[in-house]
Amino acid sequence: MFRFINMRRCSAPYGVRQLAAAFPAEKPCLIEIRDLKISYGDTDALRGVNCSIDGGSVGLLGPNGAGKSTLLKALLGFVRVNSGTVSMFGMAMPKHALDVRRRLGYMPEREIVKPKESAVSFLTYCGCLSGMNRIDAMERAHEVLNYVGVDENRYRKMETYSTGMCQRVKFAQALIHDPQLLLLDEPTSGLDPEGRIEMLELIAELGRKRGITILLSTHLLPDVEHVCDRVIMISKGRIAVDGPIDELMIAREGCIEIRVRDNEKGFLDALVSRGFSWRRLQTGTINLTVPVSTPARAIFEIARNCGTQVRHFRAVHQSLEEVFINAISDRNGAEKSPGEQTAVEPELSTAN
Ligand code: ADP
Prior knowledge:
Layout: H1 16-20, E1 31-40, E2 43-53, E3 57-61, H2 68-76, E4 83-88, E5 91-93, H3 97-103, E6 104-107, H4 119-129, H5 134-148, H6 163-175, E7 181-185, H7 193-208, E8 213-218, H8 221-227, E9 230-235, E10 238-244, H9 245-249, E11 255-261, H10 264-273, E12 277-280, E13 286-289, H11 296-306, E14 309-315, H12 320-332
Parallel strand pairs: 3-8, 3-9, 6-7, 7-8
Antiparallel strand pairs: 1-2, 1-4, 4-5, 9-10, 11-13, 11-14, 12-13
Bound molecules: adenosine-5'-diphosphate.
């Protein structure tokens, strides 16, 4: 289990007080993104992203190639922006990148360990880079290593560490300067199931109890469900969904799972002409989106008129995956047959 430490706030040595004078009296939004477009050559990685984040634990969810890492890099000022604006803590990026990076912790997806050094020496070095003196940095290194659950292994060279251990060290370096905001890129990558739950618990604890704002980028739905209270779903460089997870997952009034026998086509055509849309699941069952305020008996009546027998009828709760599929289906808009929404493979993983 993780041990908890007193996560004290950094004081003057890390440059935060000096920055305070530069901030307006009104508390600025932590992250403000307006119409952000970023391309790599011919590849449009972000195609007009708008969002604001001002606290809480936010999941940035999307399949590989959706643009998540590019978005994080834009927040860090690591990538050239084609158009649009990024403001962090009220400061324009990338102009104020150094000031901004003092206040946020970043855990990248790729490895960042130094093989020939121990975790203590690496973390001490990171602390010094953040502006601490060596003694403070070493003390802080031990605190964060305790916190992330790196025990006596901290004195061994990092080349001898397991993937899980490297992941914890990488997480620790993001915490070394006690940031207000954490940007985490696939933080559970390479962890075994037990390590993964421990990491998620730790992230959740930092967010919910210690008031650190978390932006967790991942393609793993369960990670978002475990940690976050809000999800931003990104698909092909655009935000497809943004909202509180609880609200997104509430059973949509008017989302029905249905199986029928006899004249299925006539029945579906009749539904579509009345404003319903549908999507066939792999099981053959049909997911029906019902116009607002349609009573269930209206569907049975349509079935009766078509000579169709309803064999299964159930109001459905949406999983996060369904929320995502529906959102990108709506966005793609292409229809296979009238009323049928395009079934899109989201490539999100539900693996635990
Ligand atoms: P994600 O993090 O969601 O997997 P990325 O932001 O890494 O997505 O990538 C978004 C798109 O930009 C992808 O099509 C990817 O191939 C492309 N891309 C990312 N980085 C580069 C790069 N350095 N050069 C060219 N294309 C890139």
